């Protein structure tokens, strides 16, 4: 075993899981986990959901208590930024000048929010949400704002909108697309969410181009759209997606496209450097082995396990069913597979409620299943997708359309990755 440690950059879910999985795999060498955030590693999903409403304690967001790191001999360096990789000598330089040798380097550097660049975007009450600090700032302001404007009708924008409604705030959601979550879900699922959020009081403005954030002194007072409409607001939250943190890899001459490029073992072209989680552009079997970058808890967790197995000499390719969830008020969206490149959808509505299941096919082959408030169907869909991954038929559009056809019967048991 090398005398040098495995060094992991990023204390988000992927970095934390990689350190933890290495110990689960029996790795007995040193592990250094470095992150530029000062908090103990914490879960991000609650930040746009329960945490925004009072009552969720910060300690409950932690992945593990402080003692875990000592018990597992994971050397956690918080509040430190990795600034340069010397690949020839396998050394990593930190922002305080420290230099660390590594046997293997795992880049789990995640993604950062895309910034709005229109005039007024830097006014004091224009916020966005990625970190615990961001969530805290939004939560504090939600206590006394009357009108929230959310720019971006993606998952995070809509989760924030739903949480704000519970705080009795008036909410307007603006998006350049013509429907919510347009890049991520089928039109049928968008329609369910548009209807339900509107019923609950969200005002949507679609096909809307933001021209500037209007303000007085250093405070935003609303959003001006290109068609001349002014949308008044005393808090503006921008949720227009993220971009992968590629700078460290780029300056080390590693290949980057929409993320740090890795193979199916999460290895870059340098055999001593891997990349995982939101920052990793990897070949995905659900996208016909095209390079994709996923932003989900499942992806960060499973890629971390994959890289840990590789480091201990048990390399297994990353071939797992992608899945995702988003909680928006009373609606739970769950996705199994990838809603990508489909050419046919079959919708099964719940006759008793607002739930539905949407099956997405490409050339007759199932590529993804969206469910709204139907968790049992989601679990069955994950098992069906696993059987597709193993070379099985999955289900046909005709079976999907047949309300008597029981999805659970088509589902093979899932073996954990
Ligand atoms: C508000 C919110 C809600 C979400 N809700 C859901 C959900 O409901 N369901 C779901 O599946 N997914 C959800 N996600 C997505 C999920 O949380 C992410 O996919 C996951 O956290 C990615 O983990 P990661 O470790 O790859 O990246 P990150 O969580 O971004 O962690 C990367 C870390 O690396 C640090 N870093 C970057 N560069 C350096 C450097 N040079 N030196 C040191 N540190 C560095 C960053 O500051 C960060 O702490 C949500 C995300 C957010 C932000």
TrEMBL record:
<feature type="domain" description="Reductase C-terminal">
    <location>
        <begin position="323"/>
        <end position="410"/>
    </location>
</feature>
<protein>
    <submittedName>
        <fullName>Oxidoreductase</fullName>
    </submittedName>
</protein>
<dbReference type="InterPro" id="IPR050446">
    <property type="entry name" value="FAD-oxidoreductase/Apoptosis"/>
</dbReference>
<keyword id="KW-0560">Oxidoreductase</keyword>
<dbReference type="InterPro" id="IPR036188">
    <property type="entry name" value="FAD/NAD-bd_sf"/>
</dbReference>
<dbReference type="InterPro" id="IPR023753">
    <property type="entry name" value="FAD/NAD-binding_dom"/>
</dbReference>
<feature type="domain" description="FAD/NAD(P)-binding">
    <location>
        <begin position="5"/>
        <end position="304"/>
    </location>
</feature>
<dbReference type="Pfam" id="PF07992">
    <property type="entry name" value="Pyr_redox_2"/>
</dbReference>
<keyword id="KW-0274">FAD</keyword>
<dbReference type="InterPro" id="IPR016156">
    <property type="entry name" value="FAD/NAD-linked_Rdtase_dimer_sf"/>
</dbReference>
<keyword id="KW-0285">Flavoprotein</keyword>
<dbReference type="InterPro" id="IPR028202">
    <property type="entry name" value="Reductase_C"/>
</dbReference>
<dbReference type="Pfam" id="PF14759">
    <property type="entry name" value="Reductase_C"/>
</dbReference>
